[in-house]
Design goal:
The chain has 15 helices and twelve strands. The protein has 396 residues and is of the alpha/beta class. The strands form three sheets. A seven-stranded mixed sheet has the order 3-2-1-4-9-6-10. The chain has a three-stranded antiparallel sheet with strand order 5-11-12. It has a two-stranded antiparallel ribbon with strand order 7-8. The termini are far apart.
Length: 396
């Protein structure tokens, strides 16, 4: 018996629907699980706990005159600082909008932009339109940016090739090495910063999630803090195999610079959580403050211990023959030559630089899931070095 064509089509469609219903009934979609990493010294992420403003003296916008052009301003000698290319204009505007919305629209601290080439008029016009605060556009002196004369080009080329084989990112990019060196020991010598003490470093394409209602720079000054961070990570040992040995050579020559008993040296030397890092970095845990966010007192960088340390590292060539970043250089110096109590975790400042977050549990935050460390793959969780910081120093 042959059914009419319309009936055959209807029967076929009914069969397909029946098969689909059976499939979705029996097939359970995979559950999306949030990674929950348990550390020996940190059972849960402290950002899951309710987050409050830091203890200590806090100065608010209502406590003084923070209007943009005030002749009697409550602002201290501080700036928001960014190293940025003309081509990164969209990324830095996005960062500016976030920081202005959450903090600087209340306090109107100036923005200081640095580049190794002149900024375009478009860059100046568009960035200055994002803030009521003053904006300054500075060119880095050639002698601060150029590859030093003591660097052997052939040796650099061979070293970069070897690092590329070891999958060290940006090893062959000369400008990346120049940037790391400038951020490590040159930026605070720029004439535009001569009379500036504190800075908040901001990079393109970062996010800020939480309203901050106190003057962050005044907090640093009034509570005698030298450095503030949000994210604390491990670095690539292959990028700096001689950084720690060079550091120990310097320390052995200048033991008077160490803050013995009050510094964070155990955090720098830990070998328990990731022993392979300590081994491959020749004694350094590779833990560091992720310096794309840092609020700091430049008097520390200008001090004799740090200047002597940077010059020692600079003359060794490691900023080019290896890929020493400003994050480990700053972190090692702070961990050895400063009291750990003067280093502050800004747990209340929600922040993201891909792929990592600092996400507080606070009603002042939006767009950031509390306790989130990364929205990337699970293996990225092992890069979190906060447990070591909390273990050896605490959460202050």
């Amino acid at each position: 018996m042959v059914f009419p064509k319309p009936m055959r089509a209807l029967a076929l469609a009914s069969t397909v629907v029946l098969i689909y219903i059976i499939f979705i009934t029996l097939h359970k979609p995979p559950q999306i699980k949030e990674p929950r990493i348990v550390y020996p010294d940190m059972k849960t992420d402290p950002n899951l706990d309710e987050t409050h403003e830091p203890s200590g003296k806090l100065f608010r916008a209502s406590d003084g005159d923070y209007s943009p052009n005030s002749s009697n301003s409550a602002r201290i000698n501080a700036t928001i600082l960014t190293l940025v290319r003309n081509s990164e204009i969209d990324g830095i505007i996005q960062s500016m909008r976030d920081l202005e919305r959450t903090w600087n629209s209340k306090f109107n601290y100036p923005w200081t932009f640095f580049n190794d080439v002149p900024f375009t008029e478009e860059f100046k016009t568009r960035t200055s339109a994002e803030t009521n605060a003053s904006c300054h556009y500075e060119i880095i002196p050639r002698e601060h940016w150029a590859v030093p004369g003591w660097i052997d080009p052939a040796l650099y080329h061979d070293s970069a090739a070897m690092m590329n084989q070891n999958q060290v990112q940006y090893a062959g990019l000369v400008s990346y090495h120049q940037m790391c060196r400038w951020n490590s020991g040159m930026f605070y010598h720029h004439p535009a910063l001569r009379d500036t003490r504190y800075y908040w470093r901001v990079e393109p394409h970062v996010h800020f999630f939480c309203d901050v209602d106190y003057d962050v720079f005044r907090y640093m000054q009034d509570n005698e803090k030298t450095y503030g961070f949000t994210i604390n990570l491990y670095d690539s040992p292959q990028s700096m195999p001689t950084l720690w040995p060079q550091t120990m050579d310097f320390v052995n020559a200048h033991p008077e610079y160490l803050k013995n008993g009050s510094n964070a040296q155990p955090w720098l030397e830990d070998k328990q959580r990731r022993p392979e890092h300590n081994k491959d970095a020749n004694g350094y845990s590779t833990c560091h403050f992720w310096s794309n966010f840092e609020v700091a007192d430049m008097e520390f960088w200008r001090s004799k211990p740090y200047e002597d340390y940077f010059n020692h590292l600079d003359r060794s060539g490691g900023f080019f023959y290896e890929r020493w970043g400003d994050a480990p250089v700053h972190s090692i110096a702070l961990g050895l030559f400063e009291d750990a109590s003067k280093i502050h975790w800004f747990r209340d400042i929600g922040y993201q630089h891909i792929p990592y977050f600092n996400c507080p549990n606070s009603p002042k935050c939006s767009g950031c899931k509390k306790g989130m460390f990364t929205d990337g793959e699970d293996f990225l969780y092992k890069e979190d070095c906060r447990p070591n910081w909390f273990k050896y120093v605490g959460m202050g």
